[in-house]
Design brief:
It is built from four helices and two strands. It is mainly alpha-helical and 146 residues long. It has a two-stranded antiparallel sheet.
């Protein structure tokens, strides 16, 4: 069972954390169940919902419905295709430890580096491409929360 709490201020946080401790954490720990406790900024939670929508709806819909030259491609192939197409690479300077010289190299941009706006932009770009270039309709009112 998962517990999700949004904390808005110090008073709410104090009450919510104590309630979580008394009703769920402490009894489970007494029963020697292992627990992972995670805290993050609220904005990041929206990215989790976006990530689920992008994978479970957008990419999955494309993978299930698009056939190219008689072949369907798995979601992970489409994910890499769109990452390359819309996120590209960033240049980074690295130092060669043997020569001491600087060298420029390309690093792929990961979707994990995107914030809420960047992820929203990626979803819009991929969805638009799916409709206009691939002929695949992406459900827009689907919410993936679980």
């Amino acid at each position: 069972m998962n517990h999700y709490v949004v904390l808005h201020n110090a008073q709410d946080g104090h009450i919510s954390v104590l309630d979580l401790w008394n009703k769920w954490l402490k009894p489970n720990l007494i029963e020697q169940r292992k627990i992972v406790l995670e805290a993050r900024y609220y904005e990041d939670a929206k990215t989790d919902e976006q990530r689920r929508y992008y994978h479970a709806v957008v990419l999955d819909t494309i993978a299930r419905n698009k056939v190219i030259n008689g072949q369907k491609y798995p979601m992970r192939i489409w994910k890499e295709f769109f990452r390359d197409k819309f996120l590209g690479v960033r240049r980074k300077t690295v130092v060669n430890p043997m020569t001491g010289r600087n060298r420029r190299t390309n690093l792929r941009v990961s979707t994990e580096e995107l914030g809420v706006r960047g992820y929203a932009r990626l979803i819009e770009q991929v969805s638009y491409f799916a409709v206009t270039e691939l002929g695949v309709e992406i459900p827009s009112n689907t919410r993936i929360l679980e």
